[in-house]
Amino acid sequence: MAGIDEIVVQPPESATWRVHLDRAMWVGGVRGLMLQALHPVAMRGVWQNSSFQDDPFGRLRRTADFVGRMTFGSPEEAAEIGRRVRGIHRSLRATDPVTGATRRVDDPELLLWVHCAEVSSYLEVARRGGLGLTEEQADRYLSEQRRSATYVGLHAEDVPGSCAEMDAYFKAVRPSLRVTEEAAATVRFLLWPRLPRELRMLSAGKPLYFPFGALCYYSLPEWARRMYGVLPEVPPGLVTAGLRAFRLLFNGLPEPMHDRAFMPATRAMLRGCRERLGAAGYDVSRGLRGLTDPRRRPMR
Fold first, then answer.
1. Domain of residue 284, residue span
2. Which residue ranges does the record assign to the ER-bound oxygenase mpaB/mpaB'/Rubber oxygenase catalytic domain (predicted)?
């Protein structure tokens, strides 16, 4: 029988599974995009080299695909998408419209910022929404995410691997952050996005998206909200209650229904993950979320 490290990148007993299977990830993903936008060069790289301003939700789904493959995919799937992402980044540049100076999109400083903004958002939103992780488990999650950072070209030892290291990183990088025109536009897009073609049938319910976008915005760190100043402040307890309600509601959705929000390729990858784990003796009758229960893992 194949070892678990030959089946999925991260094992079901990892802290990563607990965080990445939590539906609060949708809030964390949008929060991460809002946070990433505060780095002027990183934001310029996205703005100048992607269709983000036309399809921000599409970028979120592509990010979900990458994160999914780094968690539930086979080592071969993770290596393949890592090569693809590095190849794309290698050819891209961000140009300062005032000075004309250019920087590589795969500059380690920029890659590190994007990684930290993303994984810290996943972790903080899930915990604030009620996912019961101890400090040790939270540290373990960030340590595990060092592996995913290597797939985009970073060295694991250069990536924060604990909550204390992540806090120190944000404290050091904050002086270089600012709200550019592109960053302000990004937040507006994320508060009222354009739905991709395959989800246009949901357009009638689009007004219901604004409370979701606002929840993502209010889950940002206080210093980031103060920089943006887009929405008036609300009591922190109200935001926490909103995150808990969102998490409770969406965690209750059946896995097949929830997975419709992903791209077809992502859904196929998740099916493959369930099949491989089932063949290895895991009880997948309750889907991937059920595998976070130790009783549904094979005896070793």
1. 4-292
2. 17-232
